Amino acid sequence: MSFGGGLEDEDDVVSEINMTPLVDVMLVLLIIFMLTVPVLTHSVNLELPRAQNTPTQARPDTVVLAVTATGEVYWNQDRLQGDALATRLAATAALAPQPEIHIRGDRQSDYENVLRVMAAAQRAGVQKLGFVTEPGV
After folding, report:
1. Is CATH 3.40.80.10 what the domain over 62-131 is classified as, yes or no?
2. Could you report the per-residue pLDDT of 119-133, keeping only the tens digit for each?
3. Is the alpha carbon torsion for 61, 67, 71, 76 positive or negative?
4. pLDDT at res. 136
5. Would the pLDDT of 23 be above 80?
6. Per-residue model confidence as pLDDT tens digits over 39-54
7. Residue-wise over 100-112: b if at least 16 C-beta within 10 A, else e?
8. Residues 118, 103: contact at Cβ < 8 Å?
9. CB atoms near residue 55 (< 10 Å)
10. What are the structural domain ranges in the chain?
11. 111-124 and 84-93 helices, crossing angle to 10°
C-alpha cells in the first residue's frame, strides 16, 4: 500500500500507522466529553415544596359579537337594537369570571361600527376582548 501522488513508481509498503486522524478523533471526543459532563452532573440538591392537587375552575363562556356590513350587531345569534348592547355588556362585565368577548367584524363593515362595539365594551368594563379573523391565503 502506497501513499502519495502516484508519481512514484516505487511499490514500497508503508509500515507506519498514520496517527494524525486518530489524534483528531480523540481530541474531538475529549472536547465533547468536557462540554457534556458538567451539564449532566451539575445539580443542586433541593427539597422542593409539595403542592396540593386542586381542581381547576371551569373556563367562562365566550360571547361572540358579530358586526355586519350594514352595522348591525349580533350577540351570539341574537340581533341587538338600541341600548341592548350596553346593557348586556354591563351584565357580562359583572360576572365572575368574566366571559371572553370575541368581535367578528365583516370585511365590508366600516371601521366606525366595529369601533363603536369596542368602545361600548370598554365602557362596560370588559377585560377580555379579542378579534376573530380568517387566516390569509
Report:
1. no
2. 999 999 999 998 888
3. negative
4. 66
5. yes
6. 766 566 767 667 676 6
7. bbebbbeeebeee
8. yes
9. 5
10. 62-131
11. 40
